[in-house]
Sequence to fold (546 residues):
Amino acid sequence: MENYILEHFDEALKNKWIKVYYQPVVRTITGAFCGAEALARWNDPEKGLLSPAEFIPVLEDTGRITELDLYVLEQICQDYQMVSKRGNRVVPVSFNLSRKDLLHNDIIERIEAIMARYNVPRELVNAEITESAFVEDVEQIGPALKKLHELGYQVWMDDFGSGYSSLGILKDYSFDEIKIDMSFLSKFDKKARNILRSVVTMAKRIGVQTLAEGVETKEQYVFLYTIGCEKIQGYYFGRPMPGDVLEQHVKNTQQTVESLALHNYYNKISAVDYQTDAPLMIVERYDKKFHILYSNEKYTDVLYRDGIDSIQQWEAILNDPKDSMNHFHTMFVEHKLQQIGDEQVITYPRGDHYMELKGKAIASCEGHTAYQAELRYVAIHVRPSENDQLDEYLRDTYYMYSDMALLDLDKDEVVSIKSSIVEQPIGRHKVIYGIQNVMDTYRNHFVYPADQEAYDAFYQMSTMEQRLRQNKNGIISCYFRSKKNGEYQWAYNIAMALPQSDFRKVLLMVVHPGFDSEKLLDMLSRRKDWMHRGENQSTERKRFHR
Ligand code: C2E
Ligand code: MG
Ligand code: MG
Fold:
């Protein structure tokens, strides 16, 4: 058989007895067709169908594998041209590289020449290299893979977990994706499942995508979906088949084909670690509707407690314009979560309890935006009257201060919470950039001329952090006169460093206590007496004057 293969290899290429078959790859969270693997098939007129297990090792041993692999790449490029010409969507295709290919010094140039001849973008072609290729000659294989990667090809590790140094290879070389070996699914016991869980989490932590090979059953698919494995390939979705058959197959089954534009978008969504203790949901918004892509068991438990029986019911509620939840969640995602990475938490009342919603925008593309959301049930066991009372006190505190603002020294912004000079409804904060500028403007318009020097010293932003640090409570304060209701009044200004902000976020509160200068002087002189009687006078005094 070996001799037969070697003697007929040229003929098999020339007469196209060797064909490229494509096996579909499916995006786990959407079920869309998002890629394919090119696999060689030798349909011999004399011997019938030869399996790769028969001819690949022979070609590898005799150094002829590279001809096959480049032939496969060329075939992929030709098929791309045909599919594009027919106006159909293309998906990235991966092809297999043998260890022997990478030992040729000119392999990259030969790959590049084929790609250029057919004008196929590099992002459409991924190179798979099996883990066991790394047993020897790594000093040659490593740089070649690096070069491919730098050129813009994705490099995937094939059959991850089948060899004996999987982790070491992963550590030393950069891969975009690992294809988890089928053996973990063929012996689908508890131990294998736990290994799969850990591999997926590990891969996400190091920024590598995961694909599970050899998915044959629905049970395996559901499990891989649950643990957040990003892509799947196997007989459950389709066997390797000729390109035109695959094209027809996709059409007949009306399967969604992932667009190239959305490919990276879904890669980002898939990169989220789904194996969390938090009640997690991934939801997509497009065409003004919510589409739930993923939810874990903890999330559905929370919904159940809130009186919602299924994730389908929840999706219907979220999309029902007559339901207040629809308005609320739409507002939250469209107005609060505007920037990618921006995380917000809000609490909203639902009957006798509250729900806490934590959200974050994770990716956005062509009118699609994906969000990660955590939902928690918050039970509040207080009598309504007590609750109301507490609310009232808190509101009063708000009114007791003339001004309240948060200074963010890093962003150099003033977040005004309450202002005595402009109309600002409760709960609506306002952000103004340039702290020093805000303070100077205020001084020019509202501070009593004789007190402006003291004001300037107190609001000198360049030394604010240092002065806060010097105080054991992280607080500094000062009195000066400023305008309130058209007249100058003594105002007590307090600046407090927020805990855990490393003195970079400062809460500013201004209160007008309503006393006159005499009373203030009287109070201060009495305090002077107390100080003489014991405390460390000089530091106290300095603090006051600051
Ligand atoms: P591979 O790259 O890991 O390819 C996946 C193999 O798993 C394919 O076998 C595919 O038909 C098979 N497979 C896919 N889904 C399932 C499933 O659900 N269940 C089971 N039991 N099997 C599944 P195939 O085509 O026989 O190829 C075997 C190996 O030969 C490939 O493993 C690859 O290493 C190599 N090979 C195939 N074509 C080429 C090629 O053009 N060049 C090189 N260098 N190697 C190739
Ligand atoms: Mg492969
Ligand atoms: Mg494989």
In short: The domain at 2-270 is CATH 3.20.20.450 (TIM Barrel). The CA atoms of residues 114 and 462 lie 61 Å apart.
